[in-house]
Each structure stands twice: as C-alpha cells, then as structure tokens.
Specification:
- It is built from six helices and two strands.
- The protein is elongated and about 70 Å long.
- It folds into two domains: 106 residues, no CATH class; 58 residues, no CATH class.
- With 187 residues, it is mainly alpha-helical.
- 46% of the residues lie in helices and 2% in strands.
- Strands 1-2 form a two-stranded antiparallel sheet.
- Helix 1 packs antiparallel against helix 2 and helix 1 packs parallel to helix 3.
Length: 187
C-alpha cells in the first residue's frame, strides 16, 4: 500500500500545472490496477484509506490549480454526482470538458478465490460442468465488458467449432489463430 500511495503522490506532483483531464486519465489506471490486484484479499480498509489519500491529493492539486478561487467555486466546477450509479456521492472529481470521472478503489468488489475441491479433477468427465462454470467465472473476471457481452451472447461457445471460449488454456486470444509459420494468414 505504501508503494501505491507513493506512486500516486509522485504522479500527481508531476502533473502540477496540467488540467484535471490529465489528472483523471493518469490516476484512473493506477487506481483500477491497484484495486484489481488487491481485490482477492481482505482490502476494504486499504481501499478506503487509498480513497482518502487520493482525496487529499486532488484537494492539493485543485488548490494549486486555482489559488485565487474559493473552495465553493472549485466544488461547483469539478465535483459532480457519480454518473455510473456505483455511488450516491456528489463529490466525484469530474473533468468539466470531457465529463470523465475519477474512479474510487472502494467501488471494486472483493471477490474471493474459490479453490478447487481436493478430489475434483479437470480430467473427470462427470465434473465437466463444474469446471466450465469455473472457467466462465474466471473469463468474466478477467475480460472487459464488451468481450463478456459477446461471450454471453454466444453462450461462451465458438460459433465455428462450438468449443468453449472461456477455457483457460485456449481463450479468445489464441482461438482459431494459426501462426504464419504453420500456414496461417494475418487475419
């Protein structure tokens, strides 16, 4: 957590003199990445502490950006209600031009890793459905929304060969791709 705090603080210092859009677009990937890294563990306290730290950073950034403006003016210009519906907070840092909002770590759900039961094996044909459900769950967790939507529409099956696209060994990235060295094309 100390490393994440230091990384965010250093990035914010580098951005002094830039606009809020640059701050939001720089901090969002760091915030989301750190939250995703810690999401399998007990991290709600860490998330709230990091959100508090980011609040202090954005306060300093905005005060430095507009030293002669009142806090009321800054609040009206830069803080809007959450447009995604994840929070009821009216204090989300929002870029006034693009309406991009700073994400909060506390919005990331804690998802525990469920271990495979001791006597279950992927080679047992009677447990095929169990492992398919696990693969689908892992696929949804590790892919962006448009891929999840497409996979769900296809029932997690390839329309060409009817194999599972959620299989951890042969996911979307390598499915039906043949290297050029083995006679494949660039398509």
């Amino acid at each position: 957590m100390k490393n994440a705090k230091k990384k965010i603080t250093d990035k914010a210092r580098q951005l002094y003199g830039k606009n809020v859009e640059v701050l939001v677009s720089t901090l969002n990937p760091i915030t989301i990445g750190t939250a995703n890294y810690w999401s399998p563990s007990v991290a709600k306290e860490v998330f709230s502490e990091m959100d508090s730290h980011i609040w202090k950073i954005q306060y300093k950034f905005l005060r430095r950006l507009h030293p002669k403006k009142s806090w009321h003016w800054i609040k009206q210009r830069y803080f809007k209600p959450d447009k995604t519906g994840q929070s009821k907070s009216n204090w989300i840092l929002t870029d006034p031009i693009t309406n991009n909002q700073l994400k909060k770590m506390s919005w990331t759900p804690i998802i525990r890793h469920v271990q495979i039961k001791y006597d279950y094996s992927p080679f047992n044909k009677y447990l095929k459905e169990y492992f398919q459900k696990r693969d689908i769950k892992e696929f949804d967790r590790n892919n962006v929304a448009y891929r999840q939507k497409l996979a769900k529409k296809q029932k997690y099956k390839c329309p060409l060969c009817s194999k599972s696209i959620a299989d951890e060994f042969e996911g979307l990235e390598i499915h039906h791709r043949i290297p050029r060295g083995k006679g494949g094309s660039n398509e």
